[in-house]
Amino acid sequence: MRIGFFSDTYTPQINGVVSSIRLFAGALERQGHSVYIFAPSPRQIEDGPHIVRIPSVPFAFQPEMRLAPIYSPAAYNMVRHANLDVIHSHDPFGIGFFGLAMARRFRVPYVHTYHTLYPEYVHYVWESRLTRNWAARLSRDFCDQCDLVIAPSTKIERALHEWGVTAPLRTLATGVDAGRYRNIDPAAATALRRQFAVAATDRVLMFVGRLGREKNIDLLIDAMAHVKTPGARLLIVGDGPYRDELERHIASHKLRGRVTFTGYLEREEVEAAYATADAFFFASTTETQGLVIAEAMASGLPVVAVDDLAVADAVTDGVNGLLVKPDAHALAAAADRILGDDLVRERMSASARERAEDLGIDRQAERLVALYLEQIAAKPPPRRGRLVQIPGAARVERHLASLRRRGRRLVRRYL
After folding, report:
1. Which H/E stretch holds residue 114?
2. pLDDT digits (tens, 9 = 90+) for 32-59
3. 2-175+361-414 belongs to CATH 3.40.50.2000
4. Domain ranges of the chain
5. pTM, to two decimals
6. Is 178-358 assigned to CATH 1.10.10.10?
């Protein structure tokens, strides 16, 4: 099968969407399929011939994100010559719209994974009830142009239903390459402990992710002020725009010796970091799945997290982790329970690994292929013809134009 992934989010960015694309692409290729990835510039040294970069510019409010046009002649020629069987988008923006147009043009199924709860991220542009409602409406209008929408968690499926999405919906989590986390080189873990001054007697709680306000890392820091286990440390792996605020928050609690930032780490270093930890610490309620939770469980880490539908798909309270209300004292008590009881931690660790095996990426890729085949069987044979009008696209474009105008006014006003 020839599959086209279309995404406005890809390397050099580091986030869950990029991880999902790379994990599924790798698994599909191992199973004999060809995957073409259409993503924004700049081109990276490691890009292979099946990665097509579309010219883009940085997003004014968040430069690590890119804005691309909805058409590229070079990308069009690649689509035409690749003779794709299915197009699968991962963002509802410029490249996602381009993929939608190409699917209509060549009459192939258009599948979309709704990775991100966009109403929870409008604070990067303009936080208001109006922008949250617009984000939900834009999401609904885009999804209703798709042949199939994939929700990576029960939480997302419910949200899309609540917003009025009528397109077919299926739930399929991104898998994890569990084998990568089974046998970590002890020397790598030892080197990482030495690098960040983690003593052998320390009990390490670990967070991995982008440091954005929506990740609720402030609550983890508040909780650390109440964790009583001797030698308890919090290792925060990642970086992002909210780091300075978090540094100030740590200083206000006088926790500099107990909370450590690693910054961005290479994939092998992240795997070694998991191997140094005793439990995974997580408070975000804006996740669509939380791929890092699956990675942590593959490393044998019990999860201490705020109870949320996206997390609860993977974590069963009392079995492979503890789910608590969004309260610093509750998080601290759960962390103390796992860090302070070796038997509890070992039992939950074994259950975590079992659950991660169920979420293996090869198994999830097979399920994704089955969804593709269903859509291909329901489509008439592809043929080349004129580019057809996309129903509802004009309404979505009007929403986007309105947001762009407001964004330009904000730029002129504040920058």
Report:
1. none
2. 999 999 999 999 999 999 999 999 998 8
3. yes
4. 2-175+361-414, 178-358
5. 0.80
6. no
